[in-house]
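Q: Sequence in, structure out?
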Amino acid sequence: MEIKENVINNIKNARRGFALTGAGISAPSGIPTFRGEDGFWRNKDPYELASPSGFKKDPQLVWDWYNERRFNIREAGPNPAHYAIKEIGDSFEKFVIITQNVDNLHQQAGSKDVLELHGNIFGNKCNLCGKIFNNVESKEVPHCDVCDGLIRPDVIWFGEALSSDVLKEAWRWTENSDICLVIGTSAVVQPASYLPILARENGAFIMEINKSRTVISPYVDESIIGDVSIILPELARLRLSSL
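A: Exactly. Output:
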């Protein structure tokens, strides 16, 4: 695998940075991407499975689907890309992972500073009062012990706003980073896809790592096309060898 000299220099010399990760970083774990040929959305209507209206229409269908996803994620576990980005991040003075994923695999790989734009699939909350529930294991849709509302996954669904606090923190990193790694994301979902653009406007070196080119490819400094589970460990090796 050939890595260009400017990529090597930037990955070695950066001191503050962030990674924006999408479903592609978890694909080598065996977790399908949402928009790929074998994605979770294939043969399913996403608005029935991941929207407030879908949950209202058939809460048990939604709960069953998320239980299946939770089981698949537990069985899969982190892959070399997750561990590599953890190693890279640990070597920086300041580094954060800003992820669009809800699978918790960055944390399982040991990463501590993770901003979850779309929530966490292993968290739950009451659909009415918002009370947080952890470690809910139930085949049937559970009810809140405060207001008797239905409990749902604590993730961001279609039509819902991102956490303003998480988004504010993500914006802050675009203003204070030497480098941004865009990993395994189609770069079509806003506002996440704008973060690398804003970081570049603030002087950061933007590196895309993906299995194919995306809509953001023309706007990054370098794209490395290939398997993220191979590329990221090599970047980690280069980074750590310079310290």
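Strands lie at 16-21, 94-99, 114-116, 119-126, 132-134, 151-155, 179-183, 205-210, 222-225.
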